[in-house]
# Entry
Amino acid sequence: MERIPTTKGVLCLCADTLIRLGLGAMFIYSAWSKLQDPRVFQTMVDNYRLLPACMTALFSVTMSMAELLVGAMFLFTKWTREAAFATVVMLAMFLVALAQALIRDLDISCGCFGDAEHGASVVLSALVRDVLLVMPTVWLMIKGQRRWIADFRWTRYA
# Structure
């Protein structure tokens, strides 16, 4: 017997897919812009003054690769919840780094997309953006489907 999807089921599936596509694309774009010139991103990380200088190169490359992996997980795998959990952890790290930069009044670029804009307003807008990104990411972590994005079977939402 084939199950007929409910309106709520269709909306949840659409929201799930849109959030996954958006987060996946955002993280891949972010990682790609950082991997184009790792030294620039290393300088941005160093400007936060959170890590010893000897660790910024390793952290910069590792974070960029982690963002690329998480973006790919959102787009191409069934591991939505795991990708969402990793994203929440990364967003928490970004929030702490951005908040301390704002509190310490550091004139830095957030470095999120390889951008070079500086100033407190850039850091504040990045902080707000990351706070807003936590909500849909937590929703995916709790309600996200373990399916390929193109798999629109209604088994759970019917």
In short: The first helix runs from residue 7 to 36. Residues 7-143 form one domain.
